[in-house]
Each structure stands twice: as structure tokens, then as C-alpha cells.
Amino acid sequence: MARLASGVALLTVLDPVGRDCGLTVTAVSSLSLEPPLVLVCVMKDRFMHDTLFVADGWSMTFLAADQLELAHYGARDRHPGARDDFARWPGRRAGHGELIFTGGVAAVECVPNELVDAGDHTIVIGRVVRVASDVTGEVPLVHVDRGYYPPGDPVS
Predict the structure, then answer these.
(1) What CA–CA distance (Å, rounded) separates 121 from 46?
(2) Which InterPro entries match (predicted)?
(3) Could you tell me the maximum CA-CA distance found in the chain, to the nearest angstrom?
């Protein structure tokens, strides 16, 4: 599956005591247009996994190629209770207090729709309640072969 290229997003949520949590994710998909649903797969042993079960909402920013440092930051190993500090990346608070990074190519705000057990992951399905209109990124970041890349030239 490492050979399957995908976009890179940063999933953000506030933990129960109001701390920022962010996780770089690549298992992301549009699921439905009506109602608008997206899904993201989160490993059960990741520090923010359990937070998603109690969150009122969460957001995903689809990262731009120049946000590589942010992608690495969100992908680092952390333990439960760890603190994230996203102050060095431009962003704003979304509807449930979670962060949207305005340098991304797109961003969605979601409310929980369903959580599905899937082996060592949980499939987190969110209903999109808002699409960010203030993101400024132009070139998306792509993940393939365990590395990050900008997209290449179009193939006719």
C-alpha cells in the first residue's frame, strides 16, 4: 500500500481539556456528496485516537507542498497527554475550537457521523459542516513510498 499515492492532511481536534491535537493522515477519502461525508483512518494506538470518540467536531486541512515541516510535525511519535504547539504555522480556530491551517490547499470542518472499528484502525466518518474559504495553498502535498512530494506534470 506504500505505493498508493495519496494527499496529505492534518486532522485537528481539541482534547477534553482544550489542548490542541493534530495528526498527519494520508488515509482520507470523500465518502458521500449527500450528505457530505469524509472519512479518515486513525490507528488505535495514536495519541489522539480516543479524543475523537468524545469530540464535538474536528477539522482536516489538506496540506500544501510548502507545508512539509507541518506534515512532519503532525507525524511525529507522541504519547497520550502530549501537547502539540502549532503556533509557528498560520491558522485559525474552526467551529469547535480546532485549528485550520490557512496555508493548506483546502480544509473541511466536520461533526462526528460514525466511528467504525477496522482492525488496528478506526474509520472516523465526519459530516462536513463547513468548507474553509480562506486557505491560500496552491500545490498539494502528496505521500507515496513513505515520502512526501509535490505532484508531477499532468499526464494527458
Answers:
(1) 9
(2) Flavin_Rdtase-like_dom, NADH-dep_flavin_reductase, Split_barrel_FMN-bd
(3) 50
More confident residue, 156 or 142: 142
pLDDT at residue 78 above 90?
A: no
Q: What is the dihedral of CA 35, 32, 116, 26, to 10 degrees?
A: -130
User: Is 154 buried (19+), middle (13-18) or exposed (0-12) by CB count in 10 A?
Assistant: exposed
How far apart CA 74 and CA 139 sit, in angstroms, is: 19
The dihedral over CA atoms of 124, 130, 136, 140, expressed in degrees to the nearest 10, equals 30
Q: Evaluate whether residue 51 is within a structural domain.
A: yes
What pTM was computed for the model? Answer: 0.92
Look at residue 146 and tell me if it is in a domain.
no
Which of 19, 95, 101 lies closest to 58, judged by CA?
A: 95
Identify the band that residue 126 occupies on the pLDDT scale cut at 50, 70 and 90: very high
Structural domain harbouring 111: 7-138
